[in-house]
Amino acid sequence: MSLAFALEKQVAISAVLRACSLTSAVFNKLVKNETLVKGDKSPVTGEHSTRVILASDTLPVADYSAQAVINVILAQAFPSDPIVGEEDSADLRNDADPTSATLRSRITELANEALALPLRDWEKAEWGIGPTHGQRTTFQLLDAIDRGNFSGARKGRMWTLDPIDGTKGFLRGEQYAVCLALIEDSEVKLGVMGCPNLPLKAGDEAGEKGCIFVAVKGQGSEQRPISSLQDATPIHIPTRPLSELRTLESVEAAHSSQSTTGRIAQALGITAAPVRMDSQAKYCSLARGDGDIYLRMPTGVGYVEKIWDHAGGSLLVTEAGGVVSDSRGQPLDFGLGRTLGENFGVIASGKDVHPSVLEAVRKARAEESQKL
Ligand SMILES: Nc1ncnc2c1ncn2[C@@H]1O[C@H](COP(=O)(O)OS(=O)(=O)O)[C@@H](OP(=O)(O)O)[C@H]1O
Ligand SMILES: [Mg+2]
Ligand SMILES: [Mg+2]
Ligand SMILES: [Mg+2]
């Protein structure tokens, strides 16, 4: 008897793999060759006007094409499943914008190249299924992107997709993740995250990079090297003394209050500097024990979190033995629509330390309100 969600898992890994191949190709062909990233790895800004045009052109190409590829594959395997995807094609259909025709032709070329990737041996051997993805026309690909327009629902089955999470990290050549998750009746059942720039072993920058993380509800979490996807290694959050814990947070200060996370770390007695990393690679790092506490505290500008930024990562952490909640200790609600609703932040950690983290959050909050 096959395990629950076996087919969904196969299809999602195949789709994420092809999207990762595409995003790596975009980085190598466009971002690197067109020197869009400066020597110090900061994203290109106003220095060279031609580069700025290329940067703004290249940035969405990878996101749109990856969403097109994954949605084509999902539509083929599960034609009636709705998808909540980050991107939509409105800007690509706007002929008043002179860049949209160029973007469309690049997307068509890139997506078809990824869809034509041959089956790997492990796909044939393990699954006996395979993508038989014919070439798509430009407008078929735009329609595929727009399969991601579903508004979300409390009941029923849907996928959620972030074709590139951590777009800024992607442009810097640092961490980003291709994130796909399956949700049923508001509960995340499957999460597949591709992290092409993440070392197989924490901190081993000189070693092999490129991992796919997979979690299935009730079946645990695993890591697979992109180069050898048949080799699944189960991952678990280790238990460490409080004093040895490290926090994980966003690189972008606008996405999470670094002053609040600093206070929380202090209240916990943590002395190590926070590990700053773009994207859901933070959830992946936590799930395999590279960091211990993921803190994402609202900056107070009214931003609402999106379900595609947390669905897969949160299941990966819970299946690896952790807890994911908002800063009040409430579970994240994936049944509210495209967003997680009012932003109470996100706190993820091992089960044993989670209550202490919530207590530290309360303390940090109280200190901050006294300062006001
Ligand atoms: N103001 C604000 N507050 C909180 N979050 C925001 C905000 N603005 C954007 N985003 C979302 O952050 C996603 C990037 O992920 P991270 O914040 O984890 O990584 S990063 O360090 O900021 O790169 C990023 O995902 P991508 O757009 O897919 O890159 C956004 O969905
Ligand atoms: Mg994102
Ligand atoms: Mg994105
Ligand atoms: Mg985005």
Automatic annotation (TrEMBL):
Gene3D superfamilies reported for this sequence: 3.40.190.80, Fructose-1,6-Bisphosphatase, subunit A, domain 1 (3.30.540.10)
Cofactor(s) of this protein: Mg(2+)
Record EC number: 3.1.3.7
Reactions mediated catalytically: adenosine 2',5'-bisphosphate + H2O = AMP + phosphate; 3'-phosphoadenylyl sulfate + H2O = adenosine 5'-phosphosulfate + phosphate; adenosine 3',5'-bisphosphate + H2O = AMP + phosphate
The entry's keywords: Hydrolase, Magnesium, Metal-binding
Any one GO biological process: phosphatidylinositol phosphate biosynthetic process
Binding site for Mg(2+): 86, 162, 164-165, 309
Molecular functions (GO terms): 3'(2'),5'-bisphosphate nucleotidase activity; metal ion binding
Domain of life: Eukaryota
Pfam families: Inositol_P
Keyword Metal-binding: yes
Signal peptide: none
InterPro entries the record matches: DPNP, Inositol_monoP_metal-BS, Inositol_monoP_superfamily, Inositol_monophosphatase-like, Inositol_monophosphatase_CS
The keyword Methyltransferase is annotated on this UniProt entry: no
Family under the similarity heading: Belongs to the inositol monophosphatase superfamily.
The name this protein goes by in its record: 3'(2'),5'-bisphosphate nucleotidase
